[in-house]
Structures are given as C-alpha cells and as structure tokens.
C-alpha cells in the first residue's frame, strides 16, 4: 500500500484527488532520460490531466504539449509551453479552434480529414500565414485494448485512410497556405502489449515508403501515445517501462536522416501519481452482496462506468487489519453504472473509513462532471501536506 498520511487526510473534506508529486517527477525524469537516448521528442497529452500544478512539472521536465481542443492549446500557451512545441489533433476542430492554433504558429495541426486540410488552408490564407500540418493517418492497426479507447482501426472516426492519400496529395498541391511537415499516428490508449507498437512501427514504415515514392519526405513522424500502465500492481509497478518502450521504436521505426520522432504520452505520465480519496458513507449488507457506499462516484472518476475499467481500491483506515469481506464499492450517483468495483475484498469496512481509488491521475479529475449538481472535488498535492 502506498504511503498516505492518514492523519493529514482526515482533516481534508472528501472526496479529493491526491497527487504524489515526487512520483510524477521521478516518472518525468525517466521519460526524459530514456527518450533523450534516442533523440526522441515527447509531448504530454493535456487531456489526461490539465491541472496547472501538474502541467508546471511536465513543462519543467522539458516535454512539449499535445492538445485536442483550442482551449487546451490556449492553456498550454498560458502555462508557458513553447508554441513550436505544441501539437494539435482532434477529428472535429472548429474554425475558432483552428484560428487559435494559427495565432500561435503551433508546431503542427494533426489533420484528420481531407476537408479539414482545405479549411485550415482557407483560414491560414485569411491570416496570411502558412500552417504546419501533419496528416493523422489511420493505420488500421489493432491496439488490442478496450473498444472505446481503440482509435486506429478503419471503423474508427479518427484520421485519414490510406485510400485517400492520392487525393490528399492533390489537395496539398493546390493549397499554398499549408505545409506538410509530418505523419501522425495514434492508435489507442492503455496499450500494454509492446507487440502492438511493433505492428504500428512496421505499418508506419510502409506508409512512409509510399510517401517517399511520391518524393515526399516529412520532417517528423509522430507515433502518438497510448502506452499503458499497471492498474493492478500499482505500488510494485509505479513507473511504466519507458526504456523498453522507446527502445522498441528505436529498433523498429525506420527513421530517415534528419527526421524527428515525436511521441504524445498522457496516461503513462500521470495515472499512477493520482489517487481519489473518498469516505465510506454507509455499509449496506444485502443477502448476497454487501455494499460500501462512498462519497465519491462517477462524477469524480467515470472510467469504471464508461469503460468498465479496473481501479485498485484500498481501505487506508483499516490498512493491515486481518479480517476481510467482499463489497461492491459504489458511489452516490443515481445510476446503476456508478460502481467502482464488484466483490472487492477489503478489510472489515466501517462508516467514515477512508478509501483510496488508485491510478486516478489520468482521465480522472479532468473528466469529472457536475451531474446531480455535485461539488467539484479539490486537488491536494503531496508538497502541500509537508
Ligand atoms: C489521447 C491522446 C493521446 C494520449 O493518449 P494516452 O493513452 O493517454 O497516452 C495522444 N495523442 C492523441 C492524438 C490523443 O488523442
């Protein structure tokens, strides 16, 4: 079990997100050193967690930003990320959002359709600018992850498909206000099987060869994010194996001289540093099922309700107790999917015990909602408790 300061936690109104900054710093240090070995460039996907304090540490570690909305671009700029280090993807960028990217001359618009290329060109022309674009390509590689977080299959809405490439080249020839600078891929999230990334590399090599055969050599290849974490063995495995991850791309991606390789990691950067801390409101003993009813729910952490995802659940008040019981650990929201885990083995649990839901640093707080007119849970940082 992680080292939580129970005495300090008891004084804080629950539910709240707790962030372990030393783990985040350690993770960032390893990402930086392992990617530097291969001269790889890493962007952080803001959508995983966009808290200012988290972003500040990410920026200090020297990562760029990966954004999927105009407001994320504005946030990255506001927090001091260099605009030439900001990538902007998204299947439905509005004109307003594209104009934000143009205003700041961002590193690349990762463009997801033919029509978007034309729109970016028109908007850039109006501002007398040249937009840097990368083609987000749908490589039809199976990420072997939950189907809601698979993005690189033909049936998914993301990216430009290979059979559209000829037409893309025609459009690029006619558009004088966009410059093709990269090829971009992002096939899904929570990918733990490195073979999937090997398949991606091989597919990228083929696609790159096609472009080279048309005399197009882009400045950069962006292989996206998606590297998964160990939700089960959180304390044994708090930092994903970034050495193996980057080495795999060094081994299998065919990079041309002068070409840069970019990554966009989200979950693997921030998931493990965050926990959702909640209080048990009630224990309800049923005939078959005991319920532990928490004061946190899907409004704070929607991943279990949305993707049936697993999060490790710990009773930190009764840590070390010998007794054990099975509980369905549920939230207070009026939805039956508002359940963090079924038949979870916990020590005998009582009203007011504190419960930690682990690995909640990514796609937790940032996805929270006010459904049922709930208050927003606060964020608490380890350095504030010293
Ligand atoms: C969500 C997203 C990422 C980050 O994904 P993780 O699984 O959190 O690493 C990277 N790039 C794009 C385009 C995304 O949409």
TrEMBL record:
Annotated pathway: Amino-acid biosynthesis; L-lysine biosynthesis via DAP pathway; L-lysine from DL-2,6-diaminopimelate: step 1/1
Catalytic activity line of the entry: meso-2,6-diaminopimelate + H(+) = L-lysine + CO2
Ranges where the Orn/DAP/Arg decarboxylase 2 N-terminal domain occurs: 35-271
Keywords per UniProt: Amino-acid biosynthesis, Decarboxylase, Lyase, Lysine biosynthesis, Pyridoxal phosphate
PTM-bearing positions, type N6-(pyridoxal phosphate)lysine: 47
EC class (word): lyase
Catalytic machinery residues: 334
Keyword set includes Ribosomal protein: no
EC assignment: 4.1.1.20
Keyword Cell division: no
Single biological process term from Gene Ontology: lysine biosynthetic process via diaminopimelate
Entry protein name: Diaminopimelate decarboxylase
Gene name linked to the record: lysA
């Amino acid at each position: 079990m992680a080292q939580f300061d129970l005495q300090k936690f008891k004084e804080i109104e629950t539910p709240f997100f707790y962030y372990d900054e030393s783990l985040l710093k350690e993770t960032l240090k390893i990402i930086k050193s392992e990617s530097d070995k291969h001269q790889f460039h890493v962007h952080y996907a803001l959508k995983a967690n966009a808290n200012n304090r988290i972003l500040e540490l990410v920026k200090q570690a020297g990562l760029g930003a990966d954004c999927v909305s105009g407001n994320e671009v504005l946030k990255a700029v506001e927090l001091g990320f260099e605009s030439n280090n900001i990538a902007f993807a998204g299947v439905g960028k509005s004109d307003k959002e594209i104009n934000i990217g143009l205003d700041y001359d961002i590193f690349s618009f990762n463009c997801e359709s033919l029509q978007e290329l034309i729109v970016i060109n028109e908007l850039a022309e109006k501002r007398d600018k040249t937009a840097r674009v990368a083609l987000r390509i749908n490589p039809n590689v199976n990420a072997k992850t939950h189907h809601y977080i698979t993005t690189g299959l033909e049936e998914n809405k993301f990216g430009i498909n290979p059979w559209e490439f000829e037409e893309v080249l025609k459009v690029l020839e006619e558009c004088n206000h966009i410059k093709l600078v990269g090829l971009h891929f992002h096939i899904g999230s929570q990918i733990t099987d490195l073979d999937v990334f090997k398949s991606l590399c091989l597919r990228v090599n083929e696609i790159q060869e096609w472009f080279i055969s048309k005399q197009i050599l882009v400045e950069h290849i962006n292989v996206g994010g998606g590297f998964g974490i160990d939700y089960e063995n959180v304390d044994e495995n708090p930092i994903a194996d970034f050495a193996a991850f980057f080495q795999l791309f060094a081994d299998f991606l065919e990079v041309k001289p002068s070409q840069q390789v970019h990554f966009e990691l989200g979950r693997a950067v921030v998931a493990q540093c965050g926990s959702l801390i909640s209080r048990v409101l009630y224990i309800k003993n049923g005939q078959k099922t005991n319920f532990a009813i928490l004061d946190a729910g899907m409004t704070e952490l929607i991943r279990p309700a949305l993707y049936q995802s697993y999060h490790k659940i710990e009773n930190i008040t009764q840590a070390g107790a010998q007794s054990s019981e099975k509980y369905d650990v549920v939230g207070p929201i009026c939805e039956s999917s508002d359940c963090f885990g079924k038949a979870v083995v916990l020590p005998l649990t009582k009203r007011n015990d504190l419960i930690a839901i682990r690995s909640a640093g990514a796609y937790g707080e940032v996805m929270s909602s006010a459904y049922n007119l709930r208050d927003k849970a606060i964020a608490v940082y380890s350095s504030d408790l010293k």
